[in-house]
TrEMBL record:
This is Phage head closure protein. It comes from Lederbergia citrisecunda. Pfam families: Phage_HCP (PF05521). InterPro entries: Phage_SPP1_head-tail_adaptor, SSP1_head-tail_sf.
C-alpha cells in the first residue's frame, strides 16, 4: 500500500538524530561523544504551558512534540539536533503501531547552562 503523502508539507525541518557512542580521538584515546546516525524531514511543535505525561508514579514534563515519518531504529537513548537546538527524546511513539509516523515526545536542552 503506498504511503499517503497528503501531509508531506508538515515535514519541513531537517532533523539529525544522534546517539552517544565511544569513539577514538586524534591521539587514539577512547572518548564518548554524540554521533550523527541519520537525518530526516520532520516537524517540531512546541507545547504551550506545561504538558505532563503520567508514567505510573512519575510525571514527566514534556516541552516538545516532534513528528517524522516512520523509520526503524529511533530509540529513547538518542537526541535530535535541529540547527543549534538539541532535543532529548523522552518517548518515541510509533503512532498506533502502524509504522507510518512517529510522534516523539522530547525536551529541549539548554546548552548554555
Amino acid at each position: 500500500m503506498p504511503i499517503n503523502n497528503r501531509n508531506s508539507r508538515k515535514y519541513i525541518k531537517r532533523l539529525t538524530f544522534q546517539k552517544k557512542e565511544k569513539t577514538k580521538d586524534k591521539e587514539g584515546n577512547t572518548v564518548t561523544d554524540w554521533v550523527d546516525k541519520f537525518t530526516v524531514w520532520g516537524s517540531i511543535k512546541g507545547l504551550r504551558g506545561r504538558d505532563f505525561i503520567d508514567a505510573g508514579a512519575q510525571a514527566v514534563k514534556i516541552s516538545t512534540r516532534i513528528y517524522i515519518r516512520y523509520r526503524p531504529g529511533v530509540t529513547s537513548d538518542m537526541r535530535i539536533k535541529y540547527g543549534k537546538r538539541i532535543f532529548d527524546i523522552v518517548n518515541p511513539n510509533n503512532i498506533e503501531e502502524r509504522n507510518i509516523e512517529y510522534e516523539i515526545l522530547a525536551n529541549e536542552v539548554n546548552l548554555n547552562g
